[in-house]
Structure formats: structure tokens, C-alpha cells
Amino acid sequence: AAHLLIAPALPEFAETFPDVNLGIVVENRPIDIVAEGYDAGIRYGHLVPEDMVAVALSGPQRWVVAGAPNYLARHGKPDTPEDLGNHTCLQLLLGDNSRFPWELGTGPDQKSYRVPGHITIQDTATTISAAKAGLGLAYLLESRIAEELANGQLEIVLEDYASTDDPFHMYYSSRHNNHPGLRGLINIIRKQNGLSRI
User: In terms of pTM, does the model score above 0.70?
Assistant: First the structure.
């Protein structure tokens, strides 16, 4: 979310709110933002705690399986999720040391897959680099790899099995509801993603 949402908003935010201090911490685990002293966090909508104010920052997010052309030339393209058992799949390590499951399919046909792979990585940027290097297939947000898809460094496979997740949401305690910097950041991100101001 930091790469997709925060980074593109920083230039306009810094220009519009030069006196607001903004600290960005990227965690790969769910945290209690109030207990840990943060003003706000970003999560998929269904993961936002019920006692928090939540504002959508994006549209729904599409998860895809992608690989480098050189990997696909060597190993072929999977036709079904079950074919992933014959591939090297790059594992994403979550903050609780579990591996991120690959959710493939849509609606009632969506299933969670535990895929094989001997490379486990804790951050998306390194996973993308490993996929571009031809080390295996990766399960990533399509919006996060738009540039790599456009320039041919990665290709989507299992297109018919891409899954959709909730939009990203900024969430915060109601005590921060009127903070001009927070509201400003939310509106900049929403504008950049084609959403109206709040």
C-alpha cells in the first residue's frame, strides 16, 4: 500500500501541508495503531477493526499470478491452479511467519492454495525482483506490477483465476477525525485513484 498509495501522494502532500510532519512505517503484520502510537493505518476493507473510522482509498484490488518470460519459456505456463504444483512459486512471508495463501478464482469458485516453493520473501519489492529474474511465479497485486506488465518484464498467467480483494482503506480512531493533515492525505490519495473528496 505504501508504494501504490502513499508514495505517489507525497509530492502533493508535502507542497500542500509543508508544516505537517509525516512519518511512514511499513509493517507486514496487523498492528494496533492506537496501542503503538500511530495516527492511521492502511488495510483492505474487511481487515479494518470495527471500532475504527475507515475511508476507501482505492477501488477493488486484483490479485494475479505472474512470471518472467524467461521463466515461462523454461517451465511453461500453468493452465489451472492445480498446475502450480509443477512450478516454483515465490512465497510471501507474513509478519506472523505464515506464508500468504494464493486465493485464486472468483465468487463461490474462489479457493485458497498452498503452493510449492523454496524461496520465501517478506516484502513485495523483493518478490517482484525475484520474479523478474525468473526465479519463479509470484502472486501479486496487478496494480503493483503494472509497469512490469507494460514493459514485458512480467506476464500474467492463470488470467481466468485472478481474484479480487476489497479496496484499500485508511483507518483511524475517531479522535483523529478532524486532523487536517490526515484528511488532506486521504483526499490526495482518493483524487489520485479517481475517487471523490471526503
Answer: yes
